[in-house]
Design brief:
This protein is an alpha/beta fold and 377 residues long. It is 54% helix and 11% strand.
């Protein structure tokens, strides 16, 4: 179970949490620069009282196993009573990982083994507060976290990974530059769409996803282009709803393809997902009973597909793909993956090799290698 605090000035609740826990030592996990730029540093000073603070921020934008080891060492030596993660999705993810790993593993070799053995988790970590400063990943609402070993992405999942507390103060995202707002917004929108049609979806996850889609479509352009605060507030809520949706359903093909795009082409995650999801609207529109991964059948998926078209006010998948690309263009995101790929001189086989096949199985329609390859050529 998670306790949520939502709205401006919700950071004030940290005081009560610290008091209830009786925390004397706090590990603060933050971004390198975003901690100050977002205003988090100044505002947190007033909330932390007389606690002894240790800050951990020296890790990659896409955290790897070496970063996790550093974080484990800090927890082991510092012995905090509370962990606070404040930043983007990667910041919250690494805090979630080190919080669980620190009480289960000691040596670096054990970490490599533990990443693939979430069943080995026997007890929760320290109390963890997650505070997002972007409106995209929804990591504060999920029970999994991403870590890279070499170029391969792993998603570590367990109920104890979910933060004990989440604080959604949308004003922390106001200072983000437009490109970050655009990438974050499309990450949330992509999560909501993929959750809506995922094999692992439920009525609950679709309700979260549906609401997130409606909010984002009515808010993203004003939030990114105009810096409209009410729209940014709504984007913060939508990102959290999308996070709750994928916490149940997990993501699908566009996310599976996005991770190696980010790793090899150095494109932020939200932009990387958006670059292919437009094509998956079309791919997922061509299906027969035998081509469906979802056991709920063709009538069920027909209804899901029609509702998604209605949410975007589009008559068909081609038009929906075009509208998707137009929204990207409107908020300053490049839509031409093939052009980006051709300039990087990266062998397509590297991308193909790193695609998470589990996520392809969660896609509602079977996807083959030639369809994936067509995205890049």
């Amino acid at each position: 179970m998670q306790t949520e605090f939502i709205g401006k000035n919700s950071l004030e609740n940290i005081k009560n949490i610290i008091s209830e826990i009786g925390a004397k030592k706090i590990l603060l996990v933050t971004g390198k620069d975003s901690y100050k730029k977002s205003g988090s540093e100044e505002r947190l000073k007033e909330c932390l009282g007389n606690a002894i603070i240790k800050r951990f921020f020296d890790f990659e934008a896409n955290p790897n196993i070496k970063d996790v080891q550093v974080g484990i060492n800090i927890i082991t030596s510092f012995k905090p009573d509370l962990v606070i993660a404040i930043g983007g999705g990667s910041v919250i993810d690494i805090a979630k990982l080190i919080n669980i790993f620190a009480i289960h593993v000691v040596k670096e070799k054990e970490i490599y083994e533990f990443v693939n053995e979430s069943s080995a988790v026997k007890k929760p970590g320290l109390p963890l507060i997650a505070i997002p400063t972007t409106s995209g990943t929804g990591s504060e609402a999920t029970h999994f976290a991403v870590v890279y070993i070499g170029n391969k992405k792993y998603s570590f999942a367990h109920k104890y990974v979910l933060p004990n507390f989440s604080i959604l103060d949308p004003s922390l995202s106001y200072s983000n530059p437009p490109y970050i707002k655009a990438c974050s917004g499309f990450d949330a929108l992509s999560q909501a769409i993929e959750s809506f049609w995922a094999v692992g979806s439920t009525e609950e996850s679709r309700n979260y996803a549906r609401e997130a889609i409606k909010i984002i479509l009515s808010s993203i352009e004003l939030a990114v282009k105009e810096g409209d605060e009410k729209s940014m507030d709504r984007m913060s809520l939508a990102a959290n709803l999308a996070g709750k949706a994928i916490n149940i359903s997990k993501t699908t093909a566009a996310h599976a393809v996005s991770y190696p795009i980010t790793k090899f082409l150095d494109i932020p995650h939200g932009h990387a997902v958006a670059l292919t999801l437009g094509s998956f609207f079309v791919i997922n529109s061509h299906y027969s009973e035998s081509q469906l991964n979802d056991p709920r059948g063709i009538d069920y998926f027909d209804n899901i597909s029609k509702e998604l078209l209605n949410l975007f006010d589009c008559p068909g998948s081609e038009e929906l793909s075009q509208r998707w690309n137009q929204i990207m263009i409107n908020i300053g995101l490049d839509t031409d993956l093939k052009s980006i790929f051709s300039k990087k001189n990266i062998d397509y086989k590297l991308i193909k090799k790193e695609i998470n096949l589990e996520r392809l199985n969660n896609n509602p329609v079977k996807v083959n290698s030639s369809q994936i390859e067509d995205l890049f050529k």
